[in-house]
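In practice, a research group might receive sequence data for several interacting partners and want a quick structural hypothesis before committing to experiments. The following worked case mirrors that situation: the sequences arrive first, and a predicted assembly follows.
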Amino acid sequence: MKIAFTTKGTEWESKIDSRFGRANYFVFYDEDTQELSSINNKDNENDAHGAGPKAAQILFNNKAQVLITGNGPGGNASTILEKIGVVCYIEAQEITIKEAYNLFKEGKLKKFY
Amino acid sequence: MKIAIASGKGGTGKTTLSTNLASYLSENNKVVLCDLDVEEPNSALFLKTEIIHQEKKYKGIPEWNKNTCTLCGNCQEVCNYHAVIQLGDTIMVFPELCHSCYACSDLCPTNSLPMINNETGTLTHFKTNTFDFVESRLKIGEEQAVPLIKQTLKYIDNNFSDEFHKIYDSPPGTSCPVIESTKNADFVILITEPTPFGFNDVKIAIETMKALNKNFGIVINRYGVGNDDVINYCKKNNIPVLAKIPNKKEIAELYSKGELLWNKIPEVKTELENIKNFIFSNIKN
Ligand code: SF4
Ligand code: SF4
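A structural hypothesis for the assembly, expressed as tokens:
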């Protein structure tokens, strides 16, 4: 399974970014290959409009099945994520990617949809 | 003459000034007041009006035709607003994000994104005893104010000759909707309160007006509260302060009853006169 995180950096110890569309990075963890990869989203940060759908598309293109983030995506992005069947977990605030992943594994993150 | 009334943030007396100035000027001039704060138009609350015309407004939104689309991806490449997105073999359009620029539609090689009309809001034309009043109200859920503002400005241009003094109550803030509302004005009045927050917001609004190369001046509302930072700043930067509307209990009372001020409070009338004299002598071409 491939899991996407909205983050402030690209390492396991990097913090989660609670924003979705305007997150600094998307980090992907592929549980099958145990690989960690990332995409810089700083361009999107300055977009006045439509950052959410754009970010949802990045998740789609990277074949993420789960999203772990903070505040939760807005309406337009959610439309896309639900359509492509990404399961979304929220309220990962002020913690590292590693910590968020562990909470997810323990079933302690709140499911958004 | 076109006068836009704007403020760095909401709740600084923009609507009070717009409605009172329109009413005051209409004593001796032909006046139309236009409420461009389409997300929350509220001028009508302070006016006794009668509706003379109402129309729905639309904007074009591309509609995807699955059968002819070759999935070339051009549409999402050209859209600056991420309002059209390709997901595998599907093209999704987000009407609330779309700016109706026609780019995707025009550049689609197979004409698979024809533009279809979507309702954005309602324009209403009212008459008061002494002047005309036009407001537009954005439909709930619609995120783009600019297309409706443009159409409302066009309605004013088509229906009112240059003999009219046109007063535009602009949306608060400094983003696209304000710029659209003030860009064709001959003069912009920025209204603020003499508080630290007001000072902060008006500084940003001043920078915006300078960047747009606008002829503008400041009106201080609720003069007497806060401090003189705004006035000192204007002095230092050679920005005219047109009027100071005093902070009075009577004003707050009339306001809460939804009544006009200038015909009941002489000081307000004097301040409006100052505004009028400044603008009229300044814009005599
Ligand atoms: S530009 Fe036209 S043909 Fe190309 S993907 Fe978009 S809708 Fe399909
Ligand atoms: S009309 Fe313009 S803004 Fe709307 S989807 Fe097409 S390219 Fe994007």
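Before designing any experiment, note the following. The first helix of chain A runs from residue 42 to 45. Residues 57 and 80 of chain A are 8 Å apart (CA to CA).
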